[in-house]
Amino acid sequence: MESHQELLVAYITDLYEKISRLEDLSPSNHVNTLFTKLVLTCLSPIDIDVTRLSEQVQEMRSRLIKLCGEAEGTLERHFSTLIGSHANPLDHINIFPYFSNYLKLTHLEFSMLKRECTTLPNRVAFIGSGPLPLTSIILATKHLVTTSFHNYDMDPSANAKALKLVCSDPDLSKRMFFHTADIMNVSSGLKEYEVIFLAALVGMDKQEKTQVISHLAVHMAPGAFLLLRSAYGARAFLYPVIDPCDDLQDFDVLSVFHPTDEVINSVIIARKRSSPILSWNQELDSTNLSCKCSEIQCLNHLSHGNKMEELAIDE
């Protein structure tokens, strides 16, 4: 008899094969149905560690994440164009099908940040903002209402679409900025931000992701906060996974949160160390950090249901 994990992987593999045969990932009834089935399947509470799966499944997962990223970009471009066609685009951003998920995820991230920050940031950067920068827009309008947001994306057309959404708003047009750049080529400018958000799809594989994080570790201001989106369990078939201990060696990991509702991404909040660990003490400190990470993950894993309710009450 097949285990629950084997059945889950088999069903996800079947959906991957159907999605990979699509000639076009633009929104349509068929495309939407396949991705909806995939998302609902990956919300399964079945305990699964994707790092322990076979090499064949790992390769399938890597290809599936890239397909999901491509589909997500296509969906965002479609709705950004549609929303941007209105005279007051921000009045219509709720037509995006996953807008409620972004509201919940952004509220979660802000609540986690508020617990760690003694003062609200003046300057925030969002890396990988895309054509529909909902996180920046929601934060700027609901949570950080005086903060300036600097959005980075490599695609000039994505930034043009994003700018069109806010340029008619008298407030956000003065606080939202868009930079067309590969973040790996941005160095000294990163020290200007008290908080940096790293989008889930910046760095589509482990090597790319760790390279970006290492670059941020070198150039961020000491004491600045880094918020990262990861994935846990079956949700890791949709997004890359960040290991809080192995991938964030130059940061102090403050909190890790794994949602159990329709929000897909896990959230990690970390702080750039003020000074590097001394080499003669590195082994001891690394061990302590690993233990700390384990405790954080365990506590959040056991209590995230109650935590989500608490955050909802805070709102």
Q: What labels would you give this structure?
A:
315 residues; alpha/beta; seven-stranded mixed beta sheet; globular
Explain what you see.
The chain contains nine helices and seven strands; from the N terminus they run H-H-H-H-E-H-E-H-H-E-E-H-E-E-E-H. With 315 residues, the protein is α/β, with parallel strands linked by helices. The protein starts with a helix and ends with a helix. The chain has helices at residues 4-20, 29-42, 55-84, 99-116, 134-143, 156-166, 172-175, 206-219, 282-314, and strands at 123-127, 148-153, 176-180, 195-198, 225-230, 251-257, 266-272. It is globular and about 55 Å long.
Topology:
Layout: H1 4-20, H2 29-42, H3 55-84, H4 99-116, E1 123-127, H5 134-143, E2 148-153, H6 156-166, H7 172-175, E3 176-180, E4 195-198, H8 206-219, E5 225-230, E6 251-257, E7 266-272, H9 282-314
Parallel strand pairs: 1-2, 1-4, 2-3, 4-5
Antiparallel strand pairs: 5-7, 6-7
Q: Strand fraction band?
A: 5-15%
N-to-C span: 46 Å
Class derived from helix and strand content: alpha/beta
**In total, how many beta strands?**
7
Low-pLDDT ranges:
277-315
Helix content: 40-55%
The pLDDT mean sits at 88
* Shape call: globular
